[in-house]
Specification:
It is built from two helices and four strands, in the order E-E-E-E-H-H. The protein is an alpha+beta fold.
Amino acid sequence: MSDALRTTTTRDGSKAAVWQMIGRAPYIVNMRLFRPGPVMFSVRTDLAEARQAMPEHEDLWNAVRHDYWADLLYLVPIREPSG
């Protein structure tokens, strides 16, 4: 799995999160509310921990979850049915 940094933005463009895939889990690096200064997370804050710590940003966490699943499904080879 790639450990490249990814950026996800909410539909309205008011929030963004930088995250990376570690193993098969999404970890949040930081988030920006498009006002002065990013919100930094401790090393290896996974999506569930970020969601629990800052539930008021549910729209951003849902967007990250969507992009995470899209990346995960893209990275996993699809097997052809045998037969």
